[in-house]
Amino acid sequence: MDPFSVITTIPDIIERCMQAYDIIKAIKNAPKSCSELMEELATANVRLNELQMHIEEVKDQENPQLDAALHKYKTTLESILNEFRGGKLACWTRIKWALSREKTVKELTSELRQNAAIFQPLLISISKRLHALQRNQNENVADKRIRNVIAWLKPLDPSTKQQLTSQLRQPQTCGWLPSHRQFTSWFSSGSFLWLNGTPGSGKTVLASFAIEYLKENMASEEIVLFVFVDFRDVRSTNLVAVMRTLLAQLLSGYNPKDFVKDFADLYKSMRDGTEPPSSFEYLTQLLKRASASWKRVFIVVDALDECALTKRRESIAEVRKLASAGSKFSIFVTSREEQDIVDVLNGIPTICLGNEMQSVNADIERFVKDKMNAPYLSLVRLDAPLRHHITSTLLEKSNGMFRLVDCQLDSLAKAKFKKNINNILRNLPDDLNSMYERILQGVEAEEKRAGADGKNIVSTVRRTLWWLVGSRRGLHLAELREAIMVEKERYSPNEDFELMSDEHLLDICSSLVHYDTETDLLVLSHFSVQEFILSGHLKDTKYAVYHAPSVSFLYRHITGLIMAYLQYADFHTGPCKNWDLLSERLNQHPLLVYIASYWDWHITRMDEATPDEQPSDKEVLDLLFDTSFLPIQRSLRQISYFGVDVDVAAHDASLCELDDASGFFGPRKCYGPPWLAVEAHCNYQLLKQSPPNTTSIAEENYMVYPLLLQGPTWLIQKIMKRRLGLIDRPLFAFGTPLMICVYANRVDMMEMLLKEGANANTCAPHYHCDHLIVPPIFLAVKAVGNAEMVKILLKYGSNTVFPGQQPDDGIPYTIIAAAEYGRPDVLKALIDYGDDVNTRSVYNGHTVLYAAVMAGSMDCIIVLANAGCRIAGSSRVEGRTPLQVALELQSSTIVRYLLSQGALPHECWYLSLDSIHWAMGEDWYPEMQTCLVQLESKQLVEANCSRKDVEEVAHILKLRFRLPILLTQKIFDFAEFWIAVSCERHEKVMIEQDSPDEPYVSTPPIGGRLENSVRRIVFRTSSHDQGWSSDGYTLGVYSGSFTWFEAEVDSARGVRRQILRNARADPRSRTHTRDQFSSSDTWMANIKSGDSISVYPKALYGGWVNYVESISVMVFTTCF
């Protein structure tokens, strides 16, 4: 029998089984043998349904044993039907027959039991195959979850730096490192090795070589992790980002099936939308946990000295602890010998490049010979004796520094005459500071030689270096050429600083800068250049004009330049009205792109402690609030709307789709600055609402919001005092200033605003909450989950119940929201505050416990249980108990816990046995199986009540007991003796957002009395969604699901009720049941006799798909 025949045969056998059951049931006062046969038939019906479900799921291939068992079952049922057939016999005749053929009945019962014994091993075999399929599916889901977590950790990209550094390394260099005694010992069994050296001594190249060597020579059960710290990438200088990157590399090779179990805390944090971990202690724990499957973990971290100084000592100490005695971590780090690093790494095995001069000089010699052969340097044309003289001299003066030799070669290459080379060699500096001074000496000499025509060369170099140190990113050459013409308190460019060409700028800056031809970005050539500019050494030399006291000084300095730049007359005309004008503006003012992107970043980094070097508060506040600055604001907005596309458009307008909205010209696909790009079309809608001739609050908000998001407390405080009324005013879809601080998780800023008078109960729309109007405390619960914030809000008078708000997402009840979003710490804080753990929503009936189970939050459930929440006999919500939800959620841990706390299995009404097949093998499964079999047998009886049956019993009650009709109705309702109308459909369909709005299934017309006849409706769905999500929020639970089902009555079109939701981003099909009673339910009370109920599968947003496999509806009505 082929698989299709098996699938079609089983329903036929089930139907025969039900026929036999109904025939025997009709025999009144039948002997015990008939009752036993009925019981066996009921059990057989449940078992056959379970078998059918398994076969459909595993798409079973031909199975001779199954074919034979089904054939025997069918033969036995035919014998039963033949023996009991004869529906026209009188009741007494059937009883006589049953008594006379009791032996035959017992034999048929025995045959059924024997067949059941054959089915049991088949069911187990099929169940194993089903579990194997589910295991593969679960691994795919787990693999996606790992990738989501890795993306959430926001790791650095060390592979690109490794590739570039490897390409820079000359062949046959660094070969001495693997044979070094300390490295050999470390590679064999060591835990920590520190390679240190002076600036420019080739530490990064050696680190790159070590990574390659370890990868080539490690064992199969070993892994290599690596990170490069680089001052040019600000994120990499944060050791927290370094630790996250190492963790991400470990997780990328983690076993998917163990991930959710082993990293439930990390996965939950990602799912809840919180920030990635930032605690070193916690990150260390995670790294140790993630390394469990590896015998040894090699870690290479280059340039520890380039890490930010804030907490650097403590952070490096944590890294050292990671390689403590007995650890499987072997860590190799490089850095300079800076005092705080020396203090922390004192006593560990060390390779000091200063002590390895013979090996280092051999590498430098290869480097020099290779570079002198570079075709772009004039040195390649020198004769062999002179090249040899250059090589030996550079080696003598290199002091082991590749960087110094590189600068010296560049200096030699600039020699105009061959005779000058010997003079240059005699006077070559022997340290980097002196080398950089020599470069600056050359700059000043160039200025003197140029006379009046070159009087600004020194200032040009100084301005270039200061911009590169203090800017948010490297600058394009065109941007920098305009930047050096900007001066404080001058509202037009100083054309005395206008350079003739890009090449001239690169030439005068020499080896102090590096130009990347691929990205067109200019950056400092080495970390030592930035240190030189900020050093006290430079301050005490005749080149002190280049000295900057600190990076923060340069942030303030550049902010002042930005304030002057924005007041150029060209920007006072407002935004451009067409592409030709915009293109002309970008050509004339290329720096505008940088400033439109980062003006807020510079303002928020001003330091109040040293106001003498920063622009005045008035300049900044005028830019925000003075109406005369409105054209400037709009000019910034226009550029920022292009986002990254402005560079594309600047070179070719045809590559960027453009539009003109109300005279405000911009890109059609407008995502703008990152802080405003919260949803598609958000910026474009704002653009259309704010034409240039209109002053609007929205435009003011555009300038204020990024400062609220990033700014220091003192600046925000001054902004609030300058603009009264702003403190409680919503900004775009980001809420009030208080809500903005809550969403940014800025506790200090939030507390300042509350002290300044912000109302903790002011509600506003927020994009993170689907633009619903929410209070700040709800945002603190949903978006951040910060218990400290919640406590502060409560301290300043926040309510916990908001009865006037939208009932969706638990907004009216903060304690329900805390459970729904899985926030145990917040939940405990609210309980301690005095909120009732048994709170029930008056809007949708949700309880705190129900919300916690729907969220799959075991931690919240435990908090509630410990606080005395009712679990035994807990209230139904939408016809389901928390235990039933946990079963449908397929969470064995929650099911077991609820049962241990007194949850009652028999209250899982209309939960089908096939919906818990996933739990076969769990210790609580037999109890649930027995309970559900009993409930399904009861449901079979209920579903087979006809109108005639009900009327006959009513007639008996009236004649024999003379009961009034109202009392009869109450008895029937108490006994649930109702008429059943049902429908079902088994067909796979795929529903998307744009699918036709059509019912999947509709019931026949409902019987019963004319009005208020519906007593109960049971909806059952088998479905799942697309199985993935672009973010990690609430995967595998019901919160945040955008695929669901709605019910509608045909006499009330347009009035729909959401009945069930799919688990979010989970490809496993689940059976969900909603058992709805009519008690105080206005929707059900309005259903009339003759109505039909339809069920609509739904999906929202692109990428969301509702895969429907089957839906059934059973409606129970009364005749009275």
From TrEMBL:
Keyword terms, alphabetized: ANK repeat, Coiled coil, Repeat
Matches recorded under InterPro entries: Ankyrin_rpt, Ankyrin_rpt-contain_sf, NACHT_NTPase, NPHP3-like_N, P-loop_NTPase
Repeat among keywords: yes
Domain NACHT: 191-306
ANK repeat copies, ranges: 878-903
PROSITE patterns xrefs: ANK_REP_REGION, ANK_REPEAT, NACHT
Residues forming coiled coils: 34-61
Highest rank taxon of the organism: Eukaryota
SMART domains associated with the record: ANK (SM00248)
Record carries keyword Protein biosynthesis: no
Protein name: NACHT domain-containing protein
Organism, as annotated: Armillaria gallica
